[in-house]
Specification:
heterodimer; A: mainly alpha; ABC transporter involved in vitamin B12 uptake, BtuC; two-stranded antiparallel ribbon; 4 strands; about 5% strand; globular; B: about 270 residues; alpha/beta; Rossmann fold; 6-stranded mixed sheet; 10 helices
């Protein structure tokens, strides 16, 4: 039974990693940038939800909507202010900028909210008994919501014009423009969508792990990044598979070996993937454009 | 020029005057003029490096010109992005095929149909009738366009898996899907055998007749150029050295010199 319990835990945290990893992968697919500020969007989403819910005393549904909207706009803003001016420059400059934005946001949050952890009230209180173990409702809400979002996202990317525009831009930016696709809008939309997913992930995460603090995004973001690399960065199904794999690996390590080793296992996976199959499980082979 | 009537003040679908571009110190193109009428087929020939593809890149705003003016269907392309110029009614294919290789054939075409699709994000998420209606119409139109080239049966295959000739044809279909008034073809016959080239020639004429558009093509295959172009421009080192009907070009000493070198003992 322990295996089943750990598996459920693993799927829960894995679906959160998957949501965040999708943001990394979509953005990478479209502008070839590892958006290291993506983890900070999680932190911002958590604080917005907490603030609207606990400080302003509004209904959780309003808090959730506010967080998603704010993060979507904020993601687009970061792209416009920080990345767009550098679109034609070397990829290294973009990467350094992303790290800079990440530090800026962390420290700004520390100034505004102080470094002290805040308590986040579980929106989905209550629990379900499975065997001898109690599982929080949040566990199942997390899994169900994430799976629904992933289905919706897959439909969006495959069946709608904006989804097709995203795929076209990620395959060949110039050719897409010449087919009448507004590349700037498509990139902005991708950042917004990724950030909205991060906000959802943030809320789900906080319902299970109640503490929020300015640096919470970096570890969660890094693990989701490992998930994206494991699945094949740039691939959306890859990000989903990678997320679940990392979550389950982490949870099984906690259950059977030692909870202190969980992070080591996750980053160990990153090293092994980079050594053996750098393109990840579903990664496309990157042929250099000449 | 009267600036108030910039719209539609030109009798030409494509009106280019004094166009030039420099790359650093290199003058890649200078004093290029071309006026293309509706339903005209114009050929652009010249030795490698003469600046032919550069012209296509300028016409589609991939490059911004250093000098000169471009009007597409009466509208100036100055400062416009490639996607805006595409909406003016200009479309192109590429010398080295640039399809969306991992995307299905039909979606390649539907992506290019974007301009005409008006449903909102919200109606796509909620799957409102407007979404279904437009998606269905787009699918139908895409299949009709593919049928022009007998490619409707390949609709669900990834574009990258098609044989070379079919990929070239798909590029033309994709360009047609943007509903252009001028179609720019960059070496459409490259890599084709003589019978495929002959077929392509009749297809290009069919496209012109069926879709009522002007066609400008770059090509090294002289049988194709001489066979279908009504007018030919010859480019060398970024300058027009000759223009005229296929007959005139064939017998032009300047052209022969550019291609074969100067004759001895003149």
């Amino acid at each position: 039974m322990t295996f089943l319990y750990q598996l459920i835990n693993g799927i829960q945290i894995g679906s959160i990693y998957a949501l965040v990893a999708l943001g990394y992968s979509m953005v990478y697919g479209i502008v070839m940038l590892i958006n290291f500020a993506h983890g900070e969007i999680i932190m911002i989403g958590s604080y917005i939800t907490w603030y609207v819910m606990s400080q302003m005393g509004l209904h959780p549904a309003i808090a959730i909507l506010a967080a998603i909207l704010f993060c979507a706009l904020f993601g687009a803003l970061i792209e416009k202010v920080a990345y767009k001016p550098l679109r034609k420059s070397e990829r290294l400059s973009l990467l350094i900028t992303a790290i800079g934005i990440s530090l800026l946001l962390q420290n700004t949050a520390q100034l505004i909210f102080s470094a002290n952890p805040r308590m986040f009230t579980n929106i989905f209180a209550g629990s379900i008994q499975i065997g001898s173990r109690q599982f929080s409702n949040a566990t199942f809400v997390t899994i169900i919501v994430s799976v629904l979002i992933m289905i919706g996202l897959t439909l969006l990317v495959n069946k709608t014009k904006i989804g097709k525009a995203m795929r076209a831009v990620s395959e060949d930016n110039d050719a897409a423009q010449l087919m009448g696709i507004n590349v700037n809008h498509t990139i902005t939309f991708t950042f917004s969508l990724g950030s909205a997913l991060a906000a959802v992930a943030a809320i789900l995460y906080c319902c299970s792990y109640a503490q929020i603090q300015p640096t919470m995004g970096s570890m969660l973001g890094l693990k989701a990044f490992v998930a994206a690399v494991l699945g094949g960065i740039g691939s959306m199904p890859g990000a989903m598979i990678g997320g679940f794999c990392i979550g389950i690996a982490e949870s099984l390590t906690k259950g059977y070996i030692s909870s202190q080793l969980a992070d080591a296992v996750v980053f160990g996976i990153l090293i092994v993937v980079l050594l053996i199959k750098p393109t990840g499980i579903l990664g496309r082979h990157i042929s250099e454009k000449v | 020029m009267n600036h108030e009537s910039v719209q539609n003040n030109s009798a030409y679908i494509l009106d280019v005057t004094n166009l030039g571009i420099d790359f650093g110190g290199l003058q890649a193109l200078d004093d290029f003029n071309i006026q293309v009428k509706d339903r005209e087929i114009v050929g652009l020939i010249g030795p490698n490096g003469a600046g032919k593809t550069t012209i296509f890149n300028l016409l589609t705003s991939v490059y911004q010109p250093s000098r000169g003016n471009i009007q597409v269907t009466g509208r100036s392309t100055k400062g416009k992005t490639p996607h805006e110029v595409s909406q003016f009614g200009i479309a192109r294919t590429f010398q080295n095929i640039r399809l969306f290789k991992n995307i299905s054939v039909i979606d390649n075409v539907k992506i290019a149909l974007h301009n005409g699709m008006k449903y909102s994000m919200l109606s796509a998420i909620l799957r409102l009738p407007s979404y279904w209606r437009e998606e269905k119409a787009a699918t139908k139109l895409a299949l009709e366009l593919l049928a022009v080239f007998n490619m409707q049966d390949l609709a669900d295959q990834p574009a990258g898996s098609l044989p070379y000739g079919a990929q070239r044809r798909l590029e033309i279909v994709r360009a047609l899907a943007t509903n252009p008034k001028v179609l720019l073809l960059d070496e459409p016959a490259a890599g084709m055998n003589p019978s495929e080239t002959a077929e392509l020639m009749s297809t290009i004429r069919d496209i012109r007749d069926q879709f009522n558009m002007a066609i400008v093509l770059i090509e090294h295959d002289m049988s194709l150029v001489m066979g279908i172009c009504e007018r030919i421009l010859v480019l060398n080192y970024g300058l027009i050295i000759a223009q005229g009907t296929p007959e005139e070009i064939k017998n032009s000493p300047v052209v022969i010199e550019a291609y074969l070198g100067q004759q001895r003992g003149e």
